[in-house]
Amino acid sequence: MAGTSSAIVVGLTAAALATIGFLGHEASVNVPAELRHPSADGAPAVREAPRDEGRPAALPGRSGRGVRVVYSLGEDRVWLVGADGEVRRTFGVSPSTVDPAPGTYRVTSRSKRITGSDGVPVEHVVRFASVEGTVIGFSAAVDGSAPALDPRERTGGVRETRADGAAMWKFATIGRTVVVVP
Fold first, then answer.
1. What is the DSSP string of the chain?
2. Distance separating alpha carbons of residues 86 and 125, to the nearest angstrom
3. Where do the record's region annotations for Disordered lie (predicted)?
4. Tens digits of per-residue pLDDT, 134-182?
5. Rounded to a whole number, what is the largest CA-CA distance in the chain?
6. Which of 64, 153, 160, 181 could, after both became Cys, cross-link 164 (CB 3.0–4.6 A)?
């Protein structure tokens, strides 16, 4: 009797493993081609969702969920996104000479008005990252100017207009998620 029970358990286990293997194979061959782009080491590559060419200011795909600030390094653009996933405001920015790595950050500190790392008085400073000692954050020049970037100087101020800076200040409180995309 015990031998028969063992044979049944072994048979059921083999059938279950065969079924799992078959279903795994079926799932892998049914992945859309646009999602099957392995990286150089053979691991699946993370790909940005395609952009809506008819709406260049559309929120990038795979930029998180919930209330957040999305900053695109490649587009020099910011989106302020509400809890419902709707864009509350989007605007272009002037980048700093030091970029944070793509990823998810949190607003760590804010300053109403200071002097920026380039010596320009700025307001509505919202800091969220640091790269090798250079603090990265959004700010607006009090005189409304865009930064004069010198690639030999490490600056972390991502500049906005004063109106956009005021909107960021109101939206990006301490702890707010900031998602940086390529």
1. -HHHHHHHHHHHHHHHHHHHHHHHHHHHHTS-GGG--B-TTSSBPP-PPPP-TT-TTSPPSS--SSSEEEEETTTTEEEEE-TTS-EEEEEE-B--SSPPPSEEEE--EEEEEEE-TTS-EEEEEEEEEEETTEEEEEEEETT-PPP---TTS---EEEE-HHHHHHHHHH--TT-EEEEE-
2. 24
3. 36-61
4. 999 999 999 988 877 788 888 899 999 999 999 999 999 999 999 999 9
5. 89
6. 160
Select from 102, 85, 100 the least CA-distant residue to 46. Answer: 102
Domain borders along the chain are 2-30, 68-181
Q: In 3D, which of 84, 92, 181, 162 has the Cα closest to residue 123?
A: 162
Q: What is the CATH number of domain 68-181?
A: 2.40.440.10
Q: Pairing state of beta strands 157-160 and 134-141?
A: parallel
pTM recorded for the entire structure: 0.69
End-to-end CA distance of the chain: 64
